[in-house]
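Researcher: Checking consistency across runs. Here is NAD(P)-dependent alcohol dehydrogenase again:
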Amino acid sequence: MTVPTTMKAAIVTAYGGPEVVEIQSRPVPIPRDDEILIKTIATTVNSGDARMRALDAPQGMKTLMRLAIGIIRPRQPIFGTEIAGTVVAAGPGVSRFAIGDEVIAFPGVGLRCHAEYVAVSERKPIAKRPENLSFEEAAGLCFGGTTALHFLRKANLKAGEHILVIGASGAVGSAMVQLAKHFSAKVTAVASAANANLALSLGADAFIDYAITDYTSTASAYDVIADTVGATRFQRCLKALKPGGRYLGIAGGVGDMLARPKDGKRPIAGMATEHPEDVAFLADLAAKGQYRVVIDQTFDFDDIAQAHARVDSKHKRGSVVVRMPQ
């Protein structure tokens, strides 16, 4: 298979709105010894991409965010954390994958997925694409799913426990609902009324419309509260947590990170870690029909700025997918 020397990539030229995202030409990366080169068929624009582009950090974390990703502009201008595509080249040390394999890859914080070609170490989270998933669905498997898995494990969610998922219609929230049910928990989903049917179809046992009901007002209702969208804080949820309850501040700020346990209840916040076995686990569940990737909209690559705008709207359901020209 002939690989070109240049490719299209979406470049974030400065911090700001979707208009700072431009399509530019870049050299195609040359895979190193342990890397595969993937021709991207589909990728996503997720909430992490949008937050980095807009420098939209949780409370108290904007300076830390600049130090991490770039003071004036992003050090890595090609965003994107997950892709689905085809292996078109491989370094001499690669043994797990071969040219022609259709794969899902999750470089995660390494980014670079908003491009026609991506080089990824075979030791990173990569799995074969399940045949029952389209490339668009495969592209949306990792970001929400691995984040949900990380926090559910941190919470040590047990069978029979009751979890409240705030933001249950988003990429992380829709994954959290499904995975909590997979682990035999009772799930109450929180979202807008328009997303009730979606949440229930994903396995939620009950649904709360946040515009009507204060989900923090019921005393000792939940073993775990998972806030996937930064809608609340640990202190506000204390009443609703059972003794020994855990609050997951998935989009939390410094306050949740520094908050101390109280009355046996504790906050869990911070960044999710990336593990190859998590992507393999999600791909296996999807292959068995036990995990569903929710797709909000699919955009052409040349319209990736519109995909960013859709994420900024805060009304997306699941993942916003971008399809590359083939």
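Researcher: Does this match what you'd expect to see?
Model: One thing to look at in this run: Residues 143-269 form a domain with the Rossmann fold fold (CATH 3.40.50.720).
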